[in-house]
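Catalogue entry: protein

Sequence with per-residue tokens
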Amino acid sequence: MVKKKKPARRAPTKPQPAAPVAKVLDYKVVELSNVDEATIERTVNDWVRQGWAFDGVQFAMRESSKRPAMAFVFFTREGAALAEHDGDHRFRSEADADRHLRRLVIGPEAAEAGAAAPVDAWTRLAQLAGEDE
């Protein structure tokens, strides 16, 4: 009688965790032109209630005064990293970007009519400045 060899025991496999989603910080900058205690306090409280974490404040000073002229209040919150720009509402499609560029370079009326771009950028700048000669 031939003895059958028992198969080697393998260590139990651990379930593989799902691939982690890369986390990044989203930043929010709020510009304050009225710099006083109440405005800064209200701004910080409003944005913290919306899920942002206060990160800091930077004051822009005037040379002639000890009071700040402006303040920039910085907030952060955790967000997911974007894998690619497709489908992201913050980015234009290539066709939309091309149409927008044509409107900027040629002008809104001419772009829709299919007109050609001006010969050079200086000509277009003169047109935008109202210096058509």
In short: Helices lie at 37-49, 94-106, 108-113, 121-128. The first strand starts at residue 23 and ends at 32.
